[in-house]
Specification:
The complex is a heterotrimer. Chain A contains 17 helices and 3 strands. Chain A is mostly helical. Chain A folds into 2 domains: about 110 residues, no CATH class; about 230 residues, MetI-like fold. In chain A, strands 2-1-3 form a 3-stranded antiparallel β-sheet. The radius of gyration of chain A is 29 Å and the shape is flat. Chain C is an all-alpha fold. Chain C has 2 domains: about 50 residues; about 240 residues, MetI-like (MetI-like fold, Orthogonal Bundle), CATH 1.10.3720. Chain C is about 70% helix and about 0% strand. Chain C contains 12 helices and 2 strands, in the order ααββαααααααααα. The longest helix of chain C is centred in the first third of the chain and has 37 residues. Classes of the chains: A mainly alpha, B alpha/beta, C mainly alpha. Chains A and C meet through α1, α8, α9, α10 and α12 of A and α1, α3, α4, α5 and α6 of C. The structure holds adenosine-5'-triphosphate and magnesium ion.
Chain lengths: ~400, ~280, ~325
């Protein structure tokens, strides 16, 4: 017989129990790392909410009482216009009127003009939501001591006005409208470029490509492009679209003269190239999922290859392709580095009017505002992040709905 | 806490020593096995003899693998799989509340239909199981003994450090048997161990089983009638129940009887190849 | 009742048996166009190489710059003509190492839990959370690093940590890479055939022993590929470091200090007013070329590993 030496009887029991204890500890460690991910996500979201609301301590550059005894909150529209006319220079008034005559502006608009241009809020300090909720007394004491003239007010940085206002150099009046339009334009152009090219390349690779050297180079190359850092695409866009094709991307050949190559078109094309590998890979997956039996059925009734693809493969792959495209859109919406390099403008308060406009974009605004020293800019950065995340959420929900709606029927 | 299987054994042997009743390696009572709502195996009552080879035969899909995997609780890993009734070993129900499945599997080893060596060296394949089970002896000796017992030693003794995937299918299967016996289980379950092998490798494994029988209880599932007739001492015939469509054992007897004078007409049809 | 035999149309009668191959111009044109579209993707890579290489060449042709200095010096100060890439590489290395020290163990553990332990229900809750993490833009992670993690670190460790530091950027980058790491590792673990797990269980192993000693080693190359992709991600990541790790190039490996990575440097300089054809402008392309080459090698390597790994279990 062999001479085995294994734990037996009660020793075996103890041995197994010791192993179970060890396994239990490890299993919890594994779970812990998932928990860390969950905690990080929660902290991130809470931190953003935390920044989007809270107390603001501010003073007025010009005391409202010098304008009138009556609190300006209660001014009528006419009174607001009078105040503006009395206090602004002729040039400034002309400029405002040329944007939109004062009389046609809404009362809220006029009110914020008065605040912005005449009374001029001077923010001393802002507080986060959780501070504001749980340390209210301390905040009040601190403000009373440090800024005796300051008012303390709870502010919703994230508010409807924030979304519809154009950019402003004052955080209290800044909004993301300009940036949202910029982002939408960039994504639109990116998708116009990458969708047809990407789906075409995917069809070629899945349906036509034989196993040969050139095709395997194409496939490997696409997989590699997917891993190239986005900043490198930015450099490519800078050298090619912004510089080399400047006459085209600035619109000079179309008679537009007031811009350089740092336009929406350059950014959109750069972003289109960046998401192209993603579009191709996703479309390939969708086409791969169409079962061969469908192709054979079409061939069986005498269809040509393209007829088969066009009327059978593509319709069946369409939901998958669309889902992939939407995911690519959300990637394009959130990418920041290439836009910085291609040169989104730091300050621009006019809505982009077309592909040859200068522009800013949501992630650019978030980056700019985060990088500022004053805390009120961090608050609007947080608010802008909420807007960006909501947009991304909408896109992804659409993708998920699409996926569920057309869940594979094969 | 889990109940020691051995303690029970001692108590049974000591109290019942005076009246020597037949002790079975495994005994099932009214065993039903479900996959979710689907009843796959129904009302199985078997007594597996110690140190004998018991074959389970029957048409495809009748629940042979399901039954075999119930013996060492491998079905625990199948989502929705569930067992009613009892599987007794030394008089202890393996599905009892305090039973530790790891210990059950440590005592009841298994060899699978397709050879599944670990992607490690030949040596490690055997040493790993021994190590996790707390083996304290000389590992080199153990590896050699196990490989010799599985009739593989001469073929691999010069390449113990090579990856097990470099072996042929038959050699891999024998390695899996060596791996199973290295931890010295009480029972070895084999699910069609030779089905993916050529006739010569099959023969080697059949000889090996005869050799192992001296120490181990073996239960084997096979599709091969000749194999069942050649190697086994007892045979259980399984078939789908015509009403419930669940697999059940329709006849269980010593192999010779099953193959020469079966009591059930269906068994006769099956073993003589007239089934259909 | 009379059968309407005529209702079945007779087969077409072909006069000539002409089964010769026909030239289908439309079909061929379409295939040609699609092929060109596929080839176009190669041109993207070629133009990246050309653009980066071309500008980098201009950079190295400048009399102020030598390749030896670029690759040997630890001082990067374009204003006084110092171009030592190590000042930037040190920060890239430091932040990447921290990021991987977070992402690799956490990502792998998460993958093991999801593939070896989690029930379907737990999985269906945890997996989307990782997907959400993966979908958050990196600029948002940058905000998180600067506004949450840095203050947290400063309140725990003290003020020897600057407002800008590599530690915070690295940690947050690790969280950002975690989902990628875990989903790639999970794919690798799932590709390990179940028969290996069954073999381990049948020898009396616990779930943990089977997972860590059988399944993980069997998925080793796939996990290795995931780590490599993680490295490439960390090296190429821009926004987190641009926001949180500081805007001065400095040769240091001390994570508590501020230092500028290669990517952050590119972002900062090109974000300002930069005149084309200046040496500063060209230097950015030299850095980008290095980034591109490093990530290219890493990506090729990981693809090669994944492909070999897939073949292993086929
Ligand atoms: N994991 C599972 N989930 C659900 N049903 C299963 C599962 N495994 C097996 N079954 C079902 O249980 C029944 C018995 O299957 P089992 O594999 O035990 O048959 P078998 O007798 O071993 O067949 P074969 O000879 O083909 O191996 C079959 O109807 C099968 O479909
Ligand atoms: Mg079976």
């Amino acid at each position: 017989m062999y001479h085995y030496v294994y734990p037996e009887e009660t020793e075996l029991q103890r041995f197994i129990q010791a192993r179970y204890r060890k396994a239990w500890i490890w299993q919890n460690l594994f779970l812990l790392s998932l928990l860390i991910a969950v905690i990080s996500l929660t902290a991130l979201l809470l931190d953003i909410i935390d920044g989007s609301f809270g107390y603001i301590a501010y003073e007025f550059k010009k005391d409202p009482l010098t304008i009138s005894e009556k609190p300006i909150e209660q001014f009528t529209k006419e009174e607001l216009i009078q105040v503006l006319q009395a206090n602004l220079s002729r040039g400034a008034l002309n400029k405002l009127n040329s944007e939109m005559p004062l009389e046609q502006r809404s009362e809220a608009d006029l009110y914020s003009l008065v605040l912005e241009r005449i009374i001029q809020i001077d923010t001393k300090q802002t507080y986060s939501l959780f501070e504001s909720l749980f340390r209210r007394a301390e905040i009040e004491a601190e403000v009373a001591e440090k800024y005796p003239n300051a008012r303390l007010e709870f502010r919703y940085w994230l508010q409807p006005e924030f979304i519809v206002s154009p950019q402003s150099s004052k955080a209290e009046f800044a909004g993301v409208r300009t940036a949202i339009f910029g982002s939408l334009w960039v994504v639109l152009i990116a998708m116009i470029l990458s969708m047809p090219v990407g789906v075409g390349a995917a069809i070629y690779l899945q349906e036509y490509a034989q196993k040969n050297f050139i095709n395997s180079v194409i496939q490997t190359n696409i997989n590699n492009l997917a891993g190239v850092p986005s900043i490198v695409y930015g450099m490519l866009g800078l050298a090619i679209f912004v510089r080399a094709f400047e006459p085209l991307t600035s619109g000079a050949v179309f008679g537009i003269t007031d811009t350089n190559g740092r336009t929406i078109l350059s950014a959109g094309l750069t972003m289109g190239i960046l998401v192209l590998p993603l579009v191709i890979i996703n479309a390939q997956e969708a086409i791969k999922a169409v079962p061969d039996s469908i192709r054979q059925a079409a061939y069986g009734v005498g269809a040509t290859k393209w007829q088969t693809i066009w009327s059978h493969v593509l319709p069946n792959a369409l939901p998958g392709i669309l889902t992939g495209n939407i995911l690519a859109m959300s990637r394009a919406m959130g990418e920041t580095a290439p836009l910085i390099i291609v040169g989104a403008s730091t300050f621009i308060s006019q809505d982009p009017s077309g592909p040859f406009s200068k522009f800013t974009a949501l992630p650019i605004q978030i980056y700019q505002w985060t990088s500022r020293a004053q805390s009120e800019f961090h608050n609007i950065a947080a608010a802008a992040i909420v807007v960006l995340l909501v947009l991304l959420l909408l896109l992804n929900t659409t993708a998920i709905l699409l996926r569920n709606r057309f869940q594979r029927r094969f | 806490m889990f109940v020691s299987l051995r303690e029970k054994e001692e108590s049974t042997t000591s109290t019942q020593a005076a009246q020597p009743t037949q002790e079975y390696a495994i005994e099932t009572r009214n065993l039903n096995i479900y996959y979710g709502d689907f009843l796959a195996v129904q009302d199985v009552n078997l007594q597996i003899q110690k140190q004998k080879i018991t074959a389970i035969i029957g048409p495809s899909g009748c629940g042979k693998s399901t039954l075999l995997r119930a013996f060492n609780r491998m079905n625990d890993f199948v989502n929705g799989a569930r067992v009613e009734g009892e599987v007794l070993m030394h008089g202890v129900n393996l599905y009892g509340k305090d039973i530790d499945p790891v210990e059950v599997r440590r005592r009841i080893g298994m060899v699978f239909q397709k050879p599944n060596p670990f992607p490690k060296s030949i040596y490690e394949n055997i040493a790993w199981g021994a190590r996790i089970n707390g083996y304290k002896g000389n590992m080199d000796d153990l590896v050699e003994q196990a490989l010799r017992a599985a009739a593989l030693w001469n073929e691999v003794k010069d390449k113990l450090k090579r990856n097990a995937y470099e072996l042929s299918g038959g050699q891999q299967q024998r390695l899996c048997i060596a791996r199973a016996i290295a931890v010295r289980p009480e029972i070895i379950l084999m699910d069609e161990p030779a089905s993916s092998l050529d006739p010569i490798s099959t023969l080697r494994i059949e000889e090996l089983m005869q050799e192992l029988k001296k120490n181990y209880t073996i239960i084997i599932v096979t599709h091969n009638m000749q194999q069942a007739a050649r190697v086994s001492d007892y045979t259980a015939m399984m078939m789908l129940d015509s009403e419930t469509r669940a697999g059940t054992v329709i006849e269980f007897n010593d192999t010779k009887t099953i193959f020469t004078r079966p009591r059930d007409k269906r068994t006769e049809d099956y073993v003589t190849g007239r089934f259909g | 009742m009379e059968l309407e035999v005529k209702s079945v149309a007779p087969p077409t009668t072909f006069r000539l048996m002409n089964l010769q191959k026909k030239m289908r111009f439309k079909e061929q044109a379409i295939e040609g166009v699609l092929f060109l579209v596929g080839v176009l993707t190669i041109f993207i890579t070629l133009s990246i190489v050309f653009v980066l290489g071309n500008e980098a060449l201009l950079f190295f042709e400048d009399p102020e710059v030598t390749l030896a200095e670029f690759l040997g010096s630890t001082k990067w100060a374009p204003a006084i003509g110092e171009f030592g890439i190590w000042a930037l590489v040190s920060a890239t290395l430091t932040t990447s190492v921290i990021a991987l020290a977070v992402a690799v163990p956490l990502g792998l553990s998460a993958a093991i839990y999801l593939s070896e332990y989690a029930s379907l229900r737990v999985r269906s809750i945890l997996k989307p959370i990782l997907e959400i993490l993966a979908g958050i833009p990196t600029v948002v992670y940058g905000y998180f690093a600067l506004m949450f993690v840095t203050p947290l670190l400063r309140s725990v460790v003290g003020n020897q940590i600057g407002v800008y530091n590599m530690l915070s950027a690295g940690l947050v980058m690790g969280i950002m890479i975690l989902p990628l790491m875990s989903s790639m590792s999970e794919d690798a673990l799932n590709a390990v055939p179940n028969s290996l797990r069954e073999a381990a269980y049948a020898l009396g192993s616990t779930r943990f022993e089977a997972a860590l000693q059988v399944v993980v080693p069997a998925a080793f190359s796939g996990i290795g590929a995931a780590i490599i992709v993680g490295v490439s991600r960390a090296v190429g990541e821009t926004m987190i470091v641009a926001i949180a790790s500081g805007a001065t190039s400095k040769f240091t490996f001390n994570p508590l200090e501020a230092a500028e990575t290669m990517t952050a440097h590119i972002a900062r300089i090109s974000g300002g007013d930069l005149s084309y054809n200046s040496i500063d402008y060209n230097s950015l392309f030299a850095i980008a070329l290095m980034l591109f080459l490093v990530t290219l090698v890493l990506n090729l390597l990981s693809q090669w590993i994944v492909k070999r790994f897939r073949e292993q279990y086929e």
